Amino acid sequence: MALSNGASELKAGPSTQAAAGAKLSALFAGTLGPLIGLVLLCLALSLTTDTFLTVRNILNVLDQVTVLGIMAIGMTLVILIGGIDLSVGSVLALAAMVMGFVAHPDHLNLGMPAGIVTALVVAGLCGLVSGLLVTVTKLPPFIATLAMMSVARGLANMITDGSQIIGFPDWFTSLSIIRHFGFLSVTVGLMIVLAIIFAIFLNYRATGRSLYAIGGSAEVARLSGIPVKSLTNWVYAICGVLAGLAGIVLAARLDSVQPSSGFGYELDTIAAVVIGGASLSGGVGSIGGTAIGVLIIGVLRNGLNLLGVSPFIQQVVIGVVIALAVATDTWRRRAQ
Amino acid sequence: MSLDPSHTQTPHLGLFVSGLCKSYGPVQVLADASFEVRPGEVVALLGENGAGKSTVSNIIAGSTKSDAGTITWRGKPYSPASPAAAIDAGVGMIHQELKLLPDLSVAENVYVGRLPMRGGRIDRAAMNARASAQLKRLGLDVSPERKVRTLRIAAQQQVEIAKALTLNAELLIFDEPTAALGSEETELLFQQIRKLKAEGMSFIYISHRLDEIAEIADRVVVMRDGRIVARHERADIPVRTVVEQMVGRSVERMFPPLSEPGSETLLEVENLSSPERSFQNVSFSVRTGEILGIAGLIGAGRTELVRAIAGADPISSGSVRVAGKPVHLNGPAAAIKAGVVLVPEDRKAQGVVLDQTIGENLAIGNFDHVAPNGWVFPKAVQKFAEAGISRLGVKGRPNQAISKLSGGNQQKVIIAKWISRPPKVFILDEPTRGIDVGARAAIYDVIADLARSGMAVVVVSSDLEEVLGLSHRVLVLSRGRQRGILDRSEASNVAVMELATS
Fold this sequence. Notes:
By secondary structure, chain A is mainly alpha-helical. Chain A has helices at about 1-10, 15-25, 30-50, 55-80, 90-105, 110-135, 140-160, 170-175, 185-205, 205-215, 220-225, 230-255, 265-275, 285-305, 310-335; strands at about 165, 255. In chain A, about 75% of the residues lie in helices and about 0% in strands. The radius of gyration of chain A is 20 Å and the shape is globular. By secondary structure, chain B is α/β, with parallel strands linked by helices. Chain A: One of its GO terms (molecular function) is transmembrane transporter activity.
């Protein structure tokens, strides 16, 4: 945040420009470092491969990050208030299984709309329970969501006794395949719209600003009359719903749902948010930053694939990037 | 009594403290402190909050370094680099907040860091037997294998003493040992001190309970503003004399003139009690334009009381009315809505969000004003912040990080946050703690202005001068009980301290 002030002051030329710069930097508060990283990464890949910088490949990257991107929006809210949600991968699987079970002709056969709504409700309830475990039972968020991670995974397996459900209507799977206007699939559009809505929410809504206050100091927020507990419950519930939505998007992409899906996604999600400049102690972070973090992970995977690097080495590289991103952020803060 | 330290330099193998000084930045917290502790005696160290008692003790116990001065202990120069070095030299300190490991056993706590070993493994049998012997010496009958967490505070304290004994301590410093003890437990502690004294151990005893001093101490040293102001060769001194020496005549300070309070009662507190009994049956009222000071020693329940009135902590019984209407105290939001606002005690942890700007800090708690439809626009925040900043003369801009401001300016931001509502009852807990003496006058002016504008103001402070200089009336708390409300005309240093130490 302080950095964005500095940046806008540096830019201070004609006052209108400065104001516009300040507005832009507010949306991408504290994300200059990750943004530079993303640009350098894209530059390097453009130079080393001839396939990276093609429209088709860029659209591929966007398609590939939809699930991660939608989950990361919810995780941004949770991390902003100083929490953590380890259950998103399991909740994703549970929501997908619930949708399949309710909608699929082999099971309840109640139609896709009923399946999607039920899935989102179940995912939201999972998040709400995590929230209540934090606010009422006073469990540390790590433990509360670790428990939910196990419970949701178990429930996802119980629905079909561990087997997958295959085959959804064409219109549903085409949501992630057909590119409207020549470039935008519905699922990518959904991710972008959600990101914009939540960016506006966090920047310009009183409730959004309150989340920053809670993360900065829950006690200051409480003494200022902000309903810390109920907002915390809401944030976990919304994070659950978004994880559920990501599960539905994944189902559309794969034309199937399986109880083992989303395994380990919580760590990718947390990594994206943290690479995007959010602080795990809360109060610092933005949707803009998270978008950059998601893109860094997406571009890195895509690029390493194009370069023919083995997936095992990819894991090593992503680990190094996480450490580097957070270390530079820490150094920069200390330097201030 | 004598102020000349030279006459006390009789040769013995006790502790000689001579000319100790300590400053933190520009603030001198200890100036030329000299006294002695002879073998087998208890010296009581008395003084108000912040008089320098803890600093002296911490230097002797090795947890703080002095800037100047020397200490001689058992005939040798002594300047411990760490608490461990002090312990090696036979000097131990029992802190007010006990430093035990609650999930380890009694014996493990006594021998932590030097567990008896045998063949590479902990010799539990020897450890338990030795710990047991020390506990028996103190007259404490608990199993050495019991977890410390399951013991009462008094017993935990004795575990600390037992630990010091096994470390062969010859001098023990007690910081407020009886603050958490009942009268029987206090008596037991005194018996133990007398017994150890007879064995030749020395004690420095810090307490706010002046009635105890005559019973346990042999001599008394009184401190004020970082200096030793009196040494008494005996302990049965009239409480009034000690109190006068403790509060003394301080430097003349600038307090703004107070305006006459109005006649309408704004805040009524009736029989308020806390669930933890940190305060009980407190009743008072404050009128428009009136400043009520709340005085008391640390732990008297002042902060707990005002936090409860502001809805920050739950109450067990009693009621609060603002302008005649009962306030449902179920959270800060309800209190703020009813017009009660609090400037909390710990500015950094409870008052400001350090990661945010001045403007953002001002907007927290005012979203109903800044964002009437829920939309927070940077321009509105900027305008709101500029109004608050200019009203209180904060030296800063709305988009500046609040962490870069001085303590005084941060405090003004917290006051500015609430001032625009406007509140009916303004509570300030330790409004000048950690603020430069020079910047305090500005805060005093702000507080007097709050009252002049018709609010009922409540000020809690450990600084007695401040309470007396700012308040129309002073409520005195001691150990959670209301000891009286003194009018400005009758509220003197001595009158307040007598009630506060009762």
